[in-house]
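Ops channel
N.P.: pipeline sanity check, posting one input/output pair.
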């Protein structure tokens, strides 16, 4: 006969099996409840914890007592779960404490300065240039432009950058466009070209303590004296670079803190020593040299052999190291920098990439500064590396911009760690978490302040564009934070938390939580996947916000410019040079846009081998356009010809291979040619025009299958078009390096 049992008998008989189930299934939930108590998670977070507990409880024998109760409201079920579990513990039916769950699943991480300190932190920064990455930012509406700059540079507001690195323009293509040199030619200097001066001023206005860093990607051709070597005359090249530093100081009162050699190209020791001498002779003893700004650590071998070189250099600057430095580099005892890193699409994976390398560059590589390429993606969609900035701002016509996850990842360090703080020693405040992820900690000189940054980025959610990321694993974990040495009496640390989510879910970025309370120098912290924590004695962090930016909009279908609204030497809005340099100049009292480069520069990539110049404009999606320009070719140093184009299918370092519809005119020889490529190898049509100097007009209209061209208001061709390319930017340019003056242009498209 079956024995009758009441509920309590059932509970008692099954307590052992229930204890086992709870230990296995509920440990993460109890850990989360403890975290909620320690960090003050909001009610929604706690509700999620309890709901998970409820789901697990429903699979246990204990739940069978209540499974037949109909029509219980949801909240009653949740409360019932909590009450039953609490009752089971308090009644000693389950003979263990909550804290027992954690005994087999926690590790202690010690933060202790009594073992000494590590290296000095020198800042998190970002790069404008390399090239023309901030081009479209200049003509944003002032309100949105100021907001963008605040998100990037304003202290304790958002990214709060500590270093700002800019390209020293060299009139050559350096990824997404060209930037103007301060010396197009040996006989002239000008410090009003381009937009990097303006950007540095804006950065300094927001943060007077920000460090400024200049680096050439290439050089004007005259420095090579007929070669592609900027070191052929090291004194002349050093003078050229120091002139830029002088211009920053005398014209804008900007102090350049760091200077580089030649971005990702060979360095030259004689030149480095000459540059140091020239800096000192001109009163710039405090401008420090970072070298080589290249991939790899080869320069460490030269430093080992050359004591003078070691004394000259402030830091070894490496690019895209994958967070590792060589033993030779570490053995130099020199400062090691990630002087360029990141270069990744700015979504959640980009945020994960940035979080991972900001910590691991020091954990693995002892690198004390990390600088993102690039500051803000503010160049036309369709160019290389879209949305590869800390922010994205590609629509000055609408004012729309994006504040993505890398901004808030930056804040986890920059808002709480000033330049000059010092890392704790490895294994005593810096290291790898037991189940994956990393932690770093830094303190001030007095050792009465402490900031800890923890990241748990999983492999697939933190892949940078380069280099290849070897496989690794991260698991959820509970750690005990143990404060020792100078920090043992800290009673609480303020907590800032980010949780990167994927598959369309909204990430929770840079959220302040309740302080983590320490008892006898210890506190427990539960770490999930793809999270960043900042634990800090500082109370000054802030998640700055502005109202929602305007909605995105297509590029305007009609645009016209006669350049009358610009200051001389300014680069016109929307015109995005890909080869050559275009700036406003005064000719007979009238503003024109002049192409100024007279010879092939010492280039960084191969686009200048086309020996033509080109600026793109408009939408890469356009299929039908009509563009009209009024131009004149100067008699002295003039180009051979001028063109307008449609459906231009590429820019950046592959501009020399651009295809599209190109209409070239050569007024001096009286010829024209229509081609399917910039290089003029695919001729579609050609003919004659009247020979003559002076002003001329030309226009190109492209519909789905036809192209029509006009010269001085007379139609000179109407042709069928090849099938490709189907879309691309409008463009204007010159057939060779040399001067060309554009008095105006109009551009229209029938649809976006």
């Amino acid at each position: 006969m079956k024995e009758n049992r009441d509920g309590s008998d059932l509970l008692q008989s099954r307590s052992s099996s229930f204890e086992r189930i709870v230990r296995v299934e509920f440990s993460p939930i109890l850990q989360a409840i403890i975290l909620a108590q320690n960090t003050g998670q909001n009610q929604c977070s706690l509700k999620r914890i309890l709901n998970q507990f409820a789901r697990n409880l429903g699979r246990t024998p204990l739940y069978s007592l209540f499974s037949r109760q109909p029509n219980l409201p949801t909240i009653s079920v949740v409360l019932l779960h909590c009450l039953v579990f609490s009752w089971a513990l308090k009644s000693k039916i389950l003979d263990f404490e909550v804290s027992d769950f954690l005994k087999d699943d926690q590790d202690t991480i010690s933060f202790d300065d009594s073992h000494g300190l590590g290296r000095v932190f020198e800042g998190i920064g970002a790069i404008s240039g390399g090239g023309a990455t901030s081009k479209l930012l200049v003509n944003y509406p002032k309100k949105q432009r100021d907001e963008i700059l605040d998100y990037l540079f304003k202290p304790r507001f958002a990214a709060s950058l500590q270093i700002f690195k800019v390209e020293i323009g060299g009139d050559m293509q350096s990824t997404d466009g060209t930037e103007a040199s301060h010396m197009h030619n040996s006989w002239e200097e000008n410090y009003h070209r381009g937009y990097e001066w303006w950007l540095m001023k804006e950065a300094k206005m927001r943060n007077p303590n920000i460090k400024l860093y200049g680096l050439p990607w290439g050089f004007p051709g005259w420095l090579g004296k007929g070669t592609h070597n900027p070191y052929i005359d090291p004194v002349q090249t050093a003078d050229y670079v120091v002139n830029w530093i002088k211009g920053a100081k005398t014209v804008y009162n900007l102090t350049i803190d760091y200077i580089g050699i030649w971005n990702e190209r060979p360095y030259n020791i004689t030149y480095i020593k000459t540059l140091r001498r020239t800096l000192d002779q001109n009163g710039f003893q405090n401008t420090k040299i970072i070298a080589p700004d290249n991939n790899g650590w080869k320069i460490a071998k030269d430093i080992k052999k050359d004591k003078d070189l070691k004394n000259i250099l402030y830091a070894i600057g490496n690019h895209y190291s994958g967070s590792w430095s060589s033993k030779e580099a570490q053995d130099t005892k020199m400062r090691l920098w990630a002087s360029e890193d990141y270069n990744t699409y700015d979504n959640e994976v980009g945020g994960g990439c940035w979080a991972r390398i900001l910590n691991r560059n020091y954990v693995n590589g002892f690198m004390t500064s990390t600088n993102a390429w690039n500051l803000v993606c503010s160049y036309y969609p369709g160019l290389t590396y879209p949305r590869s900035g800390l922010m994205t701002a590609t629509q000055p016509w609408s004012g729309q911009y994006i504040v993505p996850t890398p901004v808030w990842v930056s804040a986890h360090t920059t808002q709480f760690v000033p330049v000059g703080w010092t890392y704790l020693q490895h294994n005593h405040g810096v290291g790898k978490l037991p189940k994956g992820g990393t932690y770093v900690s830094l303190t001030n000189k007095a050792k009465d302040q402490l900031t800890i940054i923890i990241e748990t980025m999983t492999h697939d959610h933190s892949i940078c564009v380069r280099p290849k990321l070897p496989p690794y694993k991260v698991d959820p974990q509970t750690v005990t934070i143990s404060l020792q040495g100078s920090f043992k009496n800290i009673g609480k640390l303020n907590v800032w938390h980010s949780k990167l989510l994927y598959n369309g879910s909204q990430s929770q970025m840079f959220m302040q939580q309740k302080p983590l309370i320490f008892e006898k120098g210890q506190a427990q912290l539960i770490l999930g996947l793809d999270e960043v924590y900042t634990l800090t004695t500082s109370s000054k962090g802030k998640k700055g916000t502005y109202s929602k930016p305007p909605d995105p909009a297509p590029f305007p279908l009609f645009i016209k410019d006669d350049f009358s609204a610009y200051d001389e030497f300014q680069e016109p809005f929307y015109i995005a040079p890909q080869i050559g340099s275009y700036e406003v100049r005064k000719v007979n009292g009238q503003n024109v846009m002049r192409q100024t480069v007279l010879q092939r520069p010492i280039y960084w990539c191969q686009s200048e081998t086309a020996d033509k110049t080109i600026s793109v404009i408009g939408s890469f999606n356009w299929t039908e356009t009509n563009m009209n320009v009024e131009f004149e070719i100067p008699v002295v140093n003039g180009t051979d010809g001028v063109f307008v184009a449609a459906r231009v299918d590429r820019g950046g370092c592959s501009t020399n291979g651009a295809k599209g519809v190109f209409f070239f005119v050569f007024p001096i020889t009286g010829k024209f040619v229509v081609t399917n490529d910039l290089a003029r190898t695919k001729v579609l049509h050609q003919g004659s025009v009247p020979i003559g100097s002076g002003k001329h007009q030309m226009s190109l209209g492209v519909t789905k299958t036809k192209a029509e061209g006009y010269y001085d208001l007379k139609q000179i061709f109407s042709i069928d078009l090849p099938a490709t390319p189907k879309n691309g930017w409008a463009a204007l340019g010159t057939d060779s390096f040399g001067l060309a003056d554009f008095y105006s242009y109009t551009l229209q498209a029938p649809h976006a």
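N.P.: looks fine end to end. The domain at 558-748 is CATH 2.60.120.560 (Jelly Rolls).
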